[in-house]
């Protein structure tokens, strides 16, 4: 019996190595491992023990490699990650149906292929009862479609059926086609197994002999398990109040999240999370997703009359009409989504890791964000070489690594009424160009960065006087100025080339490491009169694609160049721009207490490494003054920057700043690449607390802030998370406010009994450093 069993196991291992098992495995990794450690598998035979030892990692690896599987018998696809499973199938009429999105499945035998569904009534046809993976507007479909078209002859009906599919490693492509015409749709899926994320986008091709117009082109439709009682979480706001967290129940009908402003916008962000009203920060099932598009976007959250919650997202249908001539195609933006059973915090940490590794340029190899100084609040438009050099001297002494000169350096830019578009150094302010200043900054050991706003133009500029036709507008209609500026029509290739060339020249002629790329207004009068009327609304798509192309070309030609996305604050923050920039300007509001809520909302969707956070002077917005340590600790929770007027700082301020920058550099890898645990929220607590844990678990940081003490009550106990319960940690308070006096505490104690801090009065703050000792 021993020899027979051993021989069978060794044969199985050989099959794995040959790749045969990839097609024959009928159970998940967990089921196989349970078998291997069963009483039969744990036999005393030495050969069997050795075979078993090597089989476990090989089996696990083989199963992980099966992120995309197709099962011919049931005509379904299983997309698997470490955190969830996603299933789609061909239905009885050839339609593509969604079947499952939830916790990892243990076996494909758990999946029931779709059967025939019958009409409930004449007004409840079966088409309304199935979850079509990519619903087109055709037949009796009355819910939000993913695709809607009009043919040249006026026919608007479109019914898609499965044609074929292709699997290549973590990618799946499914081909669909209209039941009559050669209107072809390819659904693209990419699985990221270790992040619990699936990326979807769609290609729509016109294979007919007549033109058609796309009126709605969504990237994907996502379906949650059937039921009611779901809750939607999303981010809203306005200028200086971005990324505010909202929780609200999902009811029958549609909730629209969107931007119509031409850019991502401050008002709503293209991210969502949904739970069954039972999730918490660290527990419960949460489905989440984010669109990768920096133009007009739309996410529709819908609960049907049949208790089905669905999320559709892609191009905004507002003012959208995209013509496709015969042979032409349109690609929709990528829509990323995932699921976790570890609450909102677990969803955030998955997204943070995914963004750092898979979205950010350079991925895991991208450098840690340097400590930045920006000159805007010190000088505003009154920049010159001597003044900037003086600020650079002061910044270098603090430990700053990147010096950025903001607005006012170019053209006739003495205020916000002139100069935009004329991207050459102002000859009165910089008579020898930028090189002497850059050389001075570099000699101090700092990189040099420069503010630009290349998509905009002032009417009082050489560029506008030469090319008034380059501005988006409708002939004979007013051109609305916001902040005294107009928007260049970047959809035009001549405008695209002009912008690329001026930025390329700046980067080629000067040792510029960093562009702070701003966009201080939204679109208006989005006309493109040079095109035929039927083509003019292509502007909404072509503008963004040309923006992406410019950045991609700049980075390819200047590999060390880094870019910050700024749009009057956080108005251009999404996974599309983040594939091309290194950091985003979170908000023009740098008031430290307000920033706690803005940064909390930001980190729901985006990684702290991407979050530019400045220390500025007080009183700031709200006429509020907080201590310099408080402001530093708030800003140190992301990519630290300083925007204060260093000419006004006292020696004591400078000494404290140098101390805090030194501390930040020590903890920077943990803050920027570690796991974030939001312990106490500023929305619901007098004390805000956030914890960052290093990837290797050897360091952790707790930041704590008190708003206003009442009745002499002590600050609440802060229970930590993410620590090894068996490890011991050395605790160090930055300012003596840690009340726990034991030099070392175990992870088990810290995650159950917590720590106690002396935080009193108004706007008090502290931080505690934990370092693993054994």
Quickly list its features.
774 residues; 8-stranded parallel beta barrel; 24% helix; alpha+beta
Task: Describe the protein.
Residues 1-64 have low confidence and may be disordered. This protein has 15 helices and 36 strands. Helix content is 24%, strand content 28%. The protein is globular and about 80 Å long. By secondary structure, it is α+β, with helices and mostly antiparallel strands. Strands 6, 7, 8, 9, 11, 12, 14, 15, 19 and 20 form a ten-stranded antiparallel sheet that branches. The chain has an eight-stranded parallel barrel with strand order 21-22-23-26-27-28-29-30, surrounded by five helices. Strands 5, 10, 13, 16, 17 and 18 form a six-stranded antiparallel sheet that branches.
* Portion in helices: 10-25%
Number of helices: 15
Instruction: Name the average pLDDT.
Output: 93
The radius of gyration computed from the alpha-carbon positions, rounded to a whole number of angstroms, is 28 Å
Total strand segments:
36
SS-based structural class? alpha+beta
Unreliable stretches: 1-64
* Separation of the first and last Cα atoms: 46 Å
